[in-house]
Design goal:
235 residues; alpha/beta; six-stranded parallel beta sheet; 6 strands; 46% helix; globular
């Protein structure tokens, strides 16, 4: 019997199951940035690694600020490698257009997630376990999610990153529950579902648009959902 929940953040609560690479690539296409998906992917990975070094994002940075920096790094990378021959004015204009577009989508997605989580919180304790840059508490407050969790386990703070199963054991410890009494909800099969199962937890895979076309063993998750609200039938 489930007695508590662990939620992932990025790709789960802020995009409804869509991988962040796909979210940004779709926005680039909507706004007509003339690059191929392969070139975008290289810039996306470069920006993720740059931000992941822990020297750029500060604890007080909002998600909007973080997203703005991410886009700036990506776009500068595309220009510096010759993948995109944009002038400064064009680059700045598209940066702002895409920032507004994507941020608006995140506000809608987190508002929807908040409604679901509020209902779950009425019956179960919840903890957040996230690979993030050190500012997750600021981001949660930005979207009104900060009062919903009994604890927040952030990779940049605890020094353990998914897919290491130990980060989920930190989550179960924060709940004060045994792993077998906890359900982990996440969008990433490799970062959430596999390690959470290895940690002894039940799992709910939020299956959305992934980063690749990889095929996974769908017998592993205890529950597969396409919408976070489906959890309400499980509680």
């Amino acid at each position: 019997m489930i007695k508590g929940y662990i939620f992932d953040y990025g790709g789960t609560l802020d995009t409804g199951g869509c991988h962040w690479g796909k979210v940004l690539w779709s926005a680039y296409m909507r706004h007509g940035v003339p690059v191929t998906e392969d070139l975008f992917r290289e810039a996306y990975v470069y920006a993720e690694r740059f931000l992941g070094k822990g020297e750029t994002v500060k604890p007080g940075h909002t998600f909007r600020k973080t997203l703005s920096m991410k886009l700036e790094i990506e776009m500068n990378r595309l220009v510096s490698t010759g993948s995109w021959t944009a002038g400064e004015e064009e680059k700045n204009r598209l940066h702002e257009d895409i920032l507004e577009d994507v941020y608006d989508g995140v506000r809608r997605a987190t508002a929807y997630s908040r409604g679901v989580l509020e209902k779950i919180k009425e019956r179960y304790p919840m903890v957040l376990v996230s690979n993030f840059y050190g500012n997750i508490n600021t981001v949660l407050a930005e979207f009104g999610l900060d009062c919903l969790f009994n604890g927040v386990i952030e990779s940049a703070v605890v020094g353990v990153r998914k897919p290491d199963p130990r980060i989920f054991r930190l989550g179960t410890d924060a709940l004060g529950l045994n792993p077998e009494d906890v359900m982990v909800v996440g969008d990433s099969f490799t970062n959430d579902i596999i390690p959470a199962a290895a940690a002894g937890c039940s799992t709910a895979w939020l299956k959305g648009e992934g980063w690749t076309d990889a095929v996974y063993n769908e017998q592993l998750p205890d529950v597969i959902i396409k919408d976070l609200s489906r959890l309400l039938s499980e509680v």
